Structures are given as C-alpha cells and as structure tokens.
Amino acid sequence: MSRKAMGFAIGGGILLIAITLGALFGSEGRNDSFQPQNEFKLDPWIELKLGPIDMSINKAVLYVVIAAALTTIAMVYIAKRMADRPNRIQTAVEASYDLTFNTITRGNMKPEMSSKWFPFVATLFFFILFSNLIGYVPLPVNTEHPVHIGGLELPGFAIYAATANLSIPLMLTLLVWFSYHYEGVRAKGPIGYVKGWIPAGVEGVARVPIFLIEALSQFVRIISLSVRLFANILAGHLLILFMGGGLVVILGIAALGAITLPVAIAFFMFEVVLIAGLQAFIFATLTAIYLGEAVAESH
Amino acid sequence: MTTHALETHGQAGGPGVGLTLLRYLDLVILAVALPLFLLAGLPLLGYAVAAGVWLAQRAINHVAQAKAKDSDDPRTVVGLLAGSMLGRGWLTAGAILTVGLVGAREDGLAAAVICISLFTIYFSTQMIVRPFDEPKGRR
Lengths: 299, 139
Fold this sequence. Notes:
Structural class of chain B: mainly alpha
Shape of chain B: flat
Oligomer: heterodimer
Strand content of chain B: under 5%
Number of helices of chain B: 6
Largest sheet of chain A: 2 strands, antiparallel
Distance between the termini of chain B: 19 Å
Order of helices and strands of chain B: HHHHHH
Order of helices and strands of chain A: HEEHHHEEHHHH
Number of strands of chain B: 0
Structural class of chain A: mainly alpha
Largest sheet of chain B: none
C-alpha cells in the first residue's frame, strides 16, 4: 500500500469510528458547567497577603519553583561536568554549553562582555526552557475539579506553565530591559547612550522623529519580548486543552474526540519538540542582542 | 563541542543503573501501584486495563523505535514515530473509554488517572534520559 493510500485509510478509519461513536452516543448537549478559562485560574493554596499585595502560594508559584530548581540543578551540573573527563554525558553538557555560550551569547556581543553576561543569558535560557517543558507535563494541580476514586479525593491532572501567565514573562522582560539599559549607560554615559539610539547617517531635523521612534521602540520591546513568550505558550496550551477534550466536553459530542485526540497529540508533540525550546532560544537570543546593541559603537 | 568528547563518546560503556532505572520508572510505579490498589480496595478492572494498555503501548513504542533506528529513510523514521505516537494515544484513550463504558465509570476514571500518572512519569524521565542517549551513528 502506498503512503497516500495508507493516509486515506487511516483518515477514513478515524472518520468511520467518529461516525459510529456519534450514532451510538449522540450528543449530550452543550455543557456550560465546564469553563475552559478556569484551567488558568490561580486558586490560592496558601493564603498570604501583605496589605494590598496578594502573595498567596498557588500552582503558578509551584511551577516557578520547579523551573528554578531544575535550572539550578542543570547549571550546577553543567559547571561541574565541564571539568570532568569527556564521556557520553559530557557530550550533552557540551552541546548545552555550546548553544548558550557560543551561539546565543558570544554570537551577539563582544568577547569580554559575553563572559560577563553569559551566566545571565544561560540562566534565562534554561529557566524559560524548563518552565515551558514542565508546562507540558500533566501534574495533579487542578484543585478546582478533584477526582474521586474509591473514596479517595485526588487533585485532577492538568497542564499549566508559569510562562503561560503574563506576570512571569513580564518580570523576565523587565529584568532584561533594565539590565541592558544599565549596561548601555555604564558604557557610554546617559547622554551618549540615548544619543546612540539614533542610527548612524541620520542628520539634521530627521534626528528628532527618528529619536522619538527609537525611544518608543525601547518601550515596545517590553511588550514584544514578554507577549511573544506568553502568547505562544498560552496558545499552545489552549490548543492542547481544546483538542484534548475541552471541545468535546463543551459541545457534549463524545464522538468528536475520535478526531480531535490525534490532533491534540500532534499539537502536543509540536509544542514540546519545537515551541518550548524555540521560545527559550528566541528570548535568550534577543536578550543577548539587546545587551550587545546597548554597548555597540554605532546603532 | 570538542572532538575529544566525540571521540571518546563510545568508551563510557553501558548505561548506568540510575539511567536504566529512570528509563523504566513508569513500569516500577505501575508494579508498586498494584498492592496499593489491592489494599485500598480501588477499582481493579481499571488498574488491569490501564496496566495492559500501558504495557502494550510501551511494546509498540519499543518496536517502532527499533524500526526507526534501523531505517535510513527520514520519511520512514518520521512516519513510524509519528504514527506510533498517534496510534498509542488512540489506543490508550480507546481503552479508557471502553472500560468506562463496559465496567463502572469509576473503572474508567481509575484507568485514566493511572495512565496519566504513568505518562507524567514516563514523559519526565524521558526528558532527563534523552540527552544521554547515544546518537544513531555511534552505536
């Protein structure tokens, strides 16, 4: 059987099963009790309020702690392993080091500056990578919909990512934003740094609108850097949620699951294999670019 | 990456006990769950179906991975791995649905919780173990 014929046979088989399931079970009608947006709701597990500031421990905090712990373990492990004799594990460690140091950091800034900022850029990369990756591991964190088996009450399994909550990407972005401005001001002085925003070759009156656009673009970076990460991860989670069962539950058509489940698996793999690493890479690379650009001779 | 690291790549011997244990941690947990189910009086039909389908999908994965390793055609490799992934997901979901319909709903729920728990363990351990796997050409 050719690949094309096999594809049609599999697609036809899935459709046939969906139709059979539809004929057997029909539709239970629209389900309004399931609110998909609640999957991202943060119920306080431990109430902690400092005046008007809510610092309650919730699942987002758990994900941040796990990601931070994994980042620390990975960085310490890499640092220790770099001194050991080469072996199979060393190859993996060196690949990580090569990517974060040579490709991301040194590729975008001067050698002396790359040595200084490498720990920061690499930590950002690993923290975002681990945040994204653990976001695809189903964990028993859904306290809103517990499951009851044989008298036991267990929290429901759910996928959630710290980076799917805007506050984390925004804080990381602000950290980057203030860091590269600090580095720029330190290297050129406040006036020199701000003057450096105007591209070389722009003369006369044209400098005023160009400066305003460049100044605005500095603030737009806060939005672009944070929202890119947040929106990509949130969109991925929503796609998996809806295809993995959310759509079936909302519409009350069980048969639809026969078609949406393979789509959910495909989205899941796409997100894990490509998006999680790519978004971490983009964020870390842009950080290195901004840092390198802040101290560059000309814009 | 240093060439020295690449050259000595194959000299490290077989995988360590820790890595081997991680690779099969899901199966260890599956075995450990049986006495817990028996002692706590939890739905055994759900456990039996979950255990059966998990072992079956692990076997399918093993065969697909072995065939993919032996193939030099990238399209065949992608087809095998993607097909096995979708098929295994389908098989697991189908088994959970069936046991929920044929047995009690609690059996289906128990099977679902076991399968998702095992997936969580399997997926997490694979992420740790994968970087330490030998590249294809270096077996």
